[in-house]
Write a structure and sequence with these properties.
With about 375 residues, the chain is of the alpha+beta class. Helix content is about 20%, strand content about 30%. The protein folds into two domains: about 1-120 and about 145-210, Immunoglobulin-like (Sandwich), CATH 2.60.40; about 220-370, Zincin-like, CATH 3.30.2010.30. The strands form four sheets. Strands 1, 2, 4, 5, 6, 9, 12, 14 and 15 form a nine-stranded mixed beta sheet that branches. The chain has a five-stranded mixed beta sheet with strand order 17-18-19-21-20. The protein has a four-stranded antiparallel beta sheet with strand order 10-11-16-13, with no helix packed on it. Helix 3 (about 250-260) packs across helix 5 and helix 4 crosses helix 5 (about 330-345).
């Protein structure tokens, strides 16, 4: 992306974030996590590749909340100077990292490494006892980062307009299957000496630039059944058959959305995980992995339109995204026209009303589709 495009993309201030992404911006994220169900925490590290946008920028600001740093913050593997601001009850704690003088030139790239753990009460993470699951034998964990909760899962520039690819390595107990809003990476030799009789290691890669609020994880006793080559349904074993039947039309919805937009589905996979009942939403449109409530399992597919709604977000919201939280309503306004077309199969309605709505909203996020 050209410097001019970047200046236009990051020129709106998000008052829900401390990040100075108009001066220096995260361009890639690498997560390395260990799930600890006994202590209800996620520990490990987050690494950002950061790009200087404004010549001479001296500091980079990150959002955090309920994050416990362990050890030094590093820039290019060297100890960095940093400060933690007084905690704001809503926005959390600003982490300010000083940029070394030799890295302050425009277009310079450098890495920022955060060793940390997540507080057991982090707002993005829900830990469930076995009794809160359908099976009742294993605990469960899931995340919900929308709207500004990603900062409690990892230090980040927690604004929707800051979209980056991300990758993750997740260590979990042997019984636990880990899912993320990304694509599973196979046949990777883990560099660490892991006891494979006790632990599993999962690797994930999200190549499409993604907002922090769409980074998601679910872990528990999970199994799956395929709907198609790109659609898979996940849930606890006790409900997998009913979830597979309820969401059997998912591939048809994806194909209909592609036909309506004229744009192929960009996220490669569309999987659905049916979560335990404590999941507080009907659905959440995490890329590659929609989260769904088990209350959708009506037995007659009468509530499957919720999945159609989340599929529509794969274009309006996930792919084309509001720049700041002030404009978040546009995700739903533009989606509504798309959604009604998706469930009614009236192309004329979409082209007359929905496309007009999408075109008009470009004034609010003109460059997001390029990312």
């Amino acid at each position: 992306m050209s410097s001019t495009s970047e200046e236009l993309l990051y020129n709106k201030k998000d008052f829900s974030s401390f990040a100075n992404y108009d001066e220096v911006v995260s361009t890639d994220i690498k997560l390395d996590w260990t799930l600890d169900f006994d202590n209800k925490t996620i520990s490990g590290s987050a690494d950002h590749v950061v790009k200087v946008l404004v010549e001479g920028t001296t500091q980079v600001h990150f959002d955090s909340r309920q994050i416990r740093l362990h050890g030094d913050i590093l820039i290019n593997n060297n100890k960095a100077k940093y400060t933690l601001a007084k905690e704001d009850p809503v926005l959390g704690t600003k982490i300010t990292v000083e940029i070394p003088p030799e890295l302050r030139a425009k277009d310079t790239l450098f890495s920022v490494h955060f060793p940390y753990s997540v507080d057991p009460n982090a707002s993005a993470v829900q830990w469930l006892e076995p009794s809160a699951t359908k099976g009742g034998n294993f605990p469960y964990v899931f995340t919900q980062c929308q709207a500004i909760h990603a900062r409690s899962l990892f230090p980040c520039m927690d604004s929707p307009g800051v979209k980056t690819p991300y990758s993750a390595r997740v260590l979990a107990p042997k019984w636990c299957t880990v899912l993320m809003s990304a694509l599973a990476s196979r046949n990777i030799t883990d560099p660490q000496n892991i006891d494979s009789s006790k632990y599993n290691v999962f690797y994930w890669t999200q190549p499409v630039p993604t907002s922090p609020y769409l980074v998601a994880l679910a872990g528990g006793n999970l199994t799956s059944l395929d709907i198609s080559a790109r659609v898979r349904i996940w849930s606890e074993p006790e409900v997998i058959e009913s979830a597979h039947n309820e969401f059997a039309e998912t591939e048809e919805f994806v194909q209909a959305a592609e036909a309506i937009t004229g744009c192929p589905y960009q996220w490669t996979r569309y999987d659905v995980v049916c979560l335990p009942p404590s999941f507080p939403y009907g659905g959440m449109e995490n890329p590659c992995l929609t989260f769904a409530t088990p209350t959708l399992l009506a037995g007659d597919r009468s509530l499957a339109d919720v999945i159609a709604h989340e599929i529509a977000h794969s274009w309006t919201g996930n792919l084309v995204t509001n720049t700041v939280w002030d404009h978040f309503w546009l995700n739903e306004v533009s989606l509504d026209c798309f959604f009604y077309e998706l469930v009614s199969s009236s192309l004329l309605f979409f082209y007359m009303i929905g496309l007009d709505c999408l075109v008009r909203t470009q004034d609010y996020f003109p460059l997001q589709a390029q990312r």
